[in-house]
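Data deposition worksheet. Section B asks for the primary sequence of the deposited chain exactly as it was used as input, without tags or linkers unless they were present during the calculation. Section C holds the resulting structure in token form. Section D is free text for depositor observations; keep each observation to a single sentence. Incomplete worksheets are returned to the depositor.
Section A, Depositor: J.P.
Section B:
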Amino acid sequence: MAGVTDAIFRGICKEMGADVMVTEFVSAEGILQADARTRKYTEFSEQQRPVGVQLFGADGARMGEAARKIVDWKQPDFIDINFGCPVNKVVARNGGSSLLKDCAMLAAVAAGVVRAVGGQVPVTAKMRIGWDAQSINAVEVAKVLVDCGVRVIAVHGRTRAQGYGGEANWEVIDAVARAVAVPVIGNGDIASGADLARRKRETAVAGVMIGRAAMGNPWVFREAKRFLASGQTPAPVLLEQRWDLVVRHCRLAVESGRYGNERQTLTSMRTRLMAYCKGFPGAKELRQKLCHVVAVGEVEELAAISIGQAELAGL
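Section C:
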């Protein structure tokens, strides 16, 4: 979720009912070598708590040092270690899911972070079920992490080789949850309250994590809570309400100055805007136009046109 779960989007998700969140993952070496440039990835507001800062790296001592710096800076509620990222540039640096192939190094990283900050904040970890279909070792890895002092484990139900293709394997997630004494959070293919309720009902997980589904539909958290409480799915969010959120997100991003001036901010947000408009009337044409926006006013204009066309069509 790098480039997605920044402080602004997390604030929106919190409004929608997300309980616990983590920051975008950040390189431990980046924290140690380029504080001013990297520190922005650890930002969060008090309203977003409980929130954890997520780190990746392959050197336990350096990871621990970076974690201590983050705890001193921000006092997060926990430090999360990423053992799940499948992206090549992370794996090539022995980070993310690459450590699933080397349990000794994975243990050294986890233990290094726990030693460094375990007395101040809990340490959690996010992992995949294995490197590929021939080396699914999630239960073994989870036991190693618990032995190192990790307090909560989130498991994404795909291998690194799968990336985000195919289906998440919740049988393996369930096996992990039954094999260790710490809470296990399941992740993968959760796009609705019904999905979440099913996984809680059919597995031993302590909780469920929603990731990619929230990119275009942060209302999913609100829907999930409603479904868990009542078994009912709320009415679909109106198109006008969706556009209101899109425009507000753009304004907040510009006001933050995190991504530069207005043009730079809107340019950086184009992928996010295209995710938001999934399912909108005329989404294909909208995506083409959103690829070129450089100002909030242009997004507002597209919103007005989209809402007007939908009203004329009786949608």
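Section D:
Strands lie at 21-22, 26-27, 51-56, 78-83, 123-130, 152-159, 184-187, 207-209.
The domain at 7-230 is CATH 3.20.20.70 (TIM Barrel).
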